[in-house]
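HUMAN: I'm a chemist; might I ask for a sequence paired with its C-alpha cells?

ASSISTANT:
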Amino acid sequence: MSALLEVRDLRTVFPGEGGPTPVVDGVSFDLDRGEVLALVGESGSGKSMTAFSILRLVPKPGRVVAGSVRLGGEDLLGLSVTAMRRVRGRRISMIFQEPMTCLNPVVRVGEQVVEAIRLHEDVSRADARDRTRALFAEVGIPDPEARLDAYPHQLSGGLKQRVMIAMALSTRPEMLIADEPTTALDVTVQAQILTLLRELQQSRGTAILLITHDLGIVNELADRVAVMYAGRLVEIAPRVPLLTEPLHPYTQGLLRSMPARGRPGEPLPEIPGVVPRASEWPRGCRFSTRCPVRFEPCAETYPAESHPAAGRRVFCHDVERRLPSEGAR
C-alpha cells in the first residue's frame, strides 16, 4: 500500500546576499495512513518550514523550488492556487502552537468552526452548528452548547487549543499537521491534549505529522521519528529503536539533553554551539561543526544514506564506517 503523503527531495529557498539560500534542502519522507510521524530538532532546523512547504504556505519571498509532495498520489506542488485552497482544510488541516493568534478575537468560537465547515462543504448554517457542537463534545470541551457562543478571551489556553483541534477535524481531513501543539500549555493540559490527539488518531484513522522539539512528547505520541538538522533529515526510525538506540550523533545529543527522572538539580549535558544559519551551513555534514565524533570526510562531503536496519535511515559518515559492508547501501 502506498503512503498517504510522499515527500521527495523537497527544497525551499529564501533570497540571500549570495543568492537563493535553502532552508529546507532535499528532504524526503513518507507518512502512512493512520500513522503519527514526529519531525524533531532544535529551533532553526527547518521543521515548521517543511510543513509550510507541504501546504504551500511558505511566507514570501520564500518559495519551493524543487521536489515533489504527493497526497494520495496527487501532486500538491502542481495544483493551481484554487485547487490547493480546497486541499488545505479539507484533506490536510494544521494545528498551530498559539491558538490565540489563530482565532479571531471578535468572533464567537463556534461561529469560526461553522464558517470553516461551510467554506469546504455545501451545508446549512444549522447543520454546521450541529456538527460543531458534536465536535466540541468529541474533543472534550465541557458544556459544548454554551461554549459555541464564547469568545476566545473567555476560554483557557487548553480550551482554545481544543477549539483549534475541533476546527482542524471539522472537515474530516486525511492528515493533520500539529506544529508544537502543546508548547503554550502547562504540563497537565499538555498531557490532556496529547491523550486527545492519540484518541482521535486511533478513532478516526487520521495521519498526523507532529512537529516538536520535545522528545517526551515524541515518546507519548509518535509511531516513527524523523530527526532534522539544518534543513536536512539526519535519522529516521521507528520510535522505540530511535529513543533507545539512536545512531546519529545529533540524535544522541538530543536524548542526552533530556531531563533525567530522579536526578533533580543535576546539570543537563548540552550539544555545544547552535544550529548554524542557512547562509552559514558547512559544506559537508551540517552537524560537523558540533559533532564529537567528526573525522576527515565530515567537513567536506555530505554523508550518503545508510540503512542499518529495517525501517531505519541515517546520514552519518561515522555510522557508515561502523556498519558491516552489507548493512550500508
